[in-house]
Amino acid sequence: MNTDYIYFCSPINAIVEGIYEEKIPFTHIKTQGDFGLGTFDHLDGEMVMLDGNIYQMTADGKVKQVDEKSLTPYSCVTFYRPLTEEFLEESLNYQAFLAWLKDLLPSLNIFYAIRIEGYFENVKVRSVPKTENYKPLVEVAQTQPEFEFSHIRGTLAGFYTPSYMSSISVPGLHLHFISEDVQHGGHLMSCCPKGIKVGIQFIHSLKMDIPLSLDYLTCDFKRDTAKDLDKAEN
Predict the structure, then answer these.
(1) Considering Cα of 183, then 144, then 93, then 115, what sign does the dihedral take?
(2) For labelling, which of 6, 125, 186, 228 has a CA lying 20 to 30 Å from the CA of 115?
(3) Rg (Cα) of the chain, in Å, rounded?
(4) Residue range 6-233, CATH number
């Protein structure tokens, strides 16, 4: 069985357009990967999956482990098998860290799964609040709670997506943070690492399911959502 692919249970455009309820169970998601990120039905917080364990990072900045009966409208996962590992001992500001990280990627035209573990001088995250269907993501993003943590150990988990896949996934780097004590986390906004290990998996195959909900089947996806997604994610 080939497990060297990245899997999406729906395209990111559905989330951008306000389709937040697809009722896709994590029992299915876990058949497609043991590592990744996403969200929950009604945008009820950020999701990160590590070693097959699913964590929900809610709008109060807290973390709880959830079971496979939880539901998702959007998740992106893979069976994590890093090809390379790199270490960074020095302290870098966020922009320098992003530049260093992108230099580890030999091409920006394929997917990468990225897992970063270690110590951070500071981390800034946010988490989406629970939201009903149809409110555009760009509007939800304007009220997202933000949290900052200092001198903390934890893990960044996520993916690099090529720019030409922007209707499928968040283009560029998309990372979620969870603290080592599993108490804090969220969607990464910035960080300052100092002493980390970076594992990178090269992924050149894509698998995606198309939702069959009435909301999805009747949505007009002709609109260019790139600007909305950029505002919501950054």
Answers:
(1) positive
(2) 228
(3) 16
(4) 3.30.1330.80
* Bridge partners for 90 per DSSP: none
> How many angstroms separate the CA atoms of 234 and 214, rounded?
30
Long-range pairs for 135-144: beta carbons < 8 A, 24 or more residues apart: 135/18, 136/16, 136/17, 136/18, 136/228, 137/15, 137/16, 137/17, 137/18, 137/43, 137/228, 137/229, 137/232, 138/16, 138/228, 138/231, 138/232, 140/43, 140/232, 141/231, 141/232, 141/233, 144/59
Which tokens sit at 18? Answer: 């306000």
What's the CA gap between 213 and 24, in Å, rounded? Answer: 10
Q: Sort strands 71-72 and 185-203 into parallel, antiparallel or unpaired.
A: unpaired
pLDDT, tens digit only, all 234 positions of the chain? 567 899 999 999 999 999 999 999 999 999 999 999 999 999 999 999 999 999 999 998 889 999 999 999 999 999 999 999 999 999 999 999 999 999 999 999 999 999 999 999 999 999 999 998 888 888 888 888 999 999 999 999 999 999 999 999 999 999 999 999 999 999 999 999 999 999 999 999 999 999 999 999 999 988 877 776 676 666
Place of tokens 């169970």: 25
Beta strands in the chain (DSSP E): 6-8, 24-25, 35-39, 46-50, 53-57, 63-66, 71-72, 75-78, 84-91, 111-126, 146-161, 172-179, 185-203, 206-208
Backbone dihedral angles phi then psi of residue 18, each to the nearest 5 degrees: 95, 20
| Cα distance between residue 60 and residue 128, in whole Å | 9
The SS3 call for residue 154 is: strand
